[in-house]
TrEMBL record:
Keywords: Methyltransferase, Transferase. Residues 1-21 are annotated as: Disordered. It comes from the Bacteria. One of its GO terms (biological process) is methylation. The keyword Methyltransferase applies. GO terms for molecular function: methyltransferase activity. This is SAM-dependent methyltransferase. It comes from Streptomyces triticagri. Residues 1-10 have a biased composition (Basic residues).
Length: 294
């Protein structure tokens, strides 16, 4: 199978199959707590690219679909594809009012009247609706959170680019510099606790040219970039712990120690960011790169 983004690092949680209650609960934690953190990133990108009724968008690693929903509200025709998160796709279906297509058929009857469509599979399975190629591809799962992010994204792009028009925009996202991301100190807990497993599934700092390197390797032409402030804000510490765990970044740490130890150390790491009213507030920045299909 082609490399995919199945190993997720905010803004999407690690894939998990089955109907286990804990898996469903984590998907809900992602959708209800953590997924809203990058909303300023989505909105900034959509505003810059003038996303609207003429946009035919393919969202890679769409998860529970919040970015798709925001584009659809602007009038875009959206298709989301995800290869390893059935619980999240089910939540995306609830949001967009459509069923999930696991057949790869562009004529799938689960599309909404506005054209929203969700595909369980690889980008190559998401044939453009009505045989009209996509004119925008988004990959909002940040590069630079895990060692295999770039390779997974390249596999996704290899399947997505042929389904889009020449000159179409491809949006790549990444973590900002660690010094601009207060969450970095909290996410380092994952790396430290997971060390016996050599950091597998844990967080690592972004490099300055991560996005540009991916674009070059994918044969895309850079056409602008930006940084967007996306603070991580939570109602209280327990909500922050649940939201951060839902990203999947702490899975290896939990395997190396146990969930209780992870929760304890997360709580301690969050202490400097707890405000007087009990809420948690961490300044954070995401980067994005707009590239064009040659």
């Amino acid at each position: 199978m082609t490399p995919t983004l199945a190993r997720r690092h905010g803004p999407y949680p690690a894939s998990a199959a089955g109907q286990d209650p804990e898996v469903r609960a984590r998907a809900r934690d992602w959708a209800e707590i953590q997924e809203r953190m990058p909303v300023p990133l989505y909105e900034a990108v959509y505003e810059r690219l003038d996303v609207g009724p003429g946009t035919r968008l393919l969202g890679l690693g769409c998860g529970s679909g919040l970015a798709l929903l925001l584009a659809a509200r602007r009038g875009a025709t959206v298709t989301g594809v995800d290869s390893g998160a059935p619980e999240l796709l089910a939540l995306a279906g609830e949001r967009l009012g459509c069923a999930v297509d696991d057949s790869g058929s562009a004529g799938f009857e689960g599309r909404t009247p506005g054209g929203a469509r969700l595909v369980s599979g690889e980008p190559a399975d998401a044939a453009p609706p009505g045989a009209r190629p996509y004119n925008l591809v988004t990959a909002f799962s940040p590069v630079g959170a895990g060692e295999d992010d770039a390779e997974g994204l390249l596999g996704q792009l290899a399947g997505a680019v042929p389904a889009a028009e020449h000159g179409s925009a491809v949006v790549l996202a990444g973590w900002g510099p660690p010094e601009r991301c207060a969450a970095a100190s909290v996410l380092r807990v994952a790396t430290r606790l997971a060390d016996p497993l050599r950091g597998g599934g844990s967080w690592c700092p972004a490099r300055r040219d991560d996005l540009e390197e991916v674009a070059a390797r994918a044969g895309l032409r850079p056409d602008g970039s930006g940084r967007v402030a996306c603070p991580f804000g939570y109602a209280d510490v327990p909500s922050a712990v649940r939201g951060l765990r839902s990203t999947g970044l702490f899975d290896a740490a939990a395997r190396a120690t146990d969930r209780e130890q992870v929760d304890k150390e997360l709580t301690e790491a969050l202490h400097p960011y707890v405000r007087g009213d009990g809420t948690v507030w961490m300044p954070h920045v995401f980067r994005y790169l707009i590239a064009r299909i040659r």
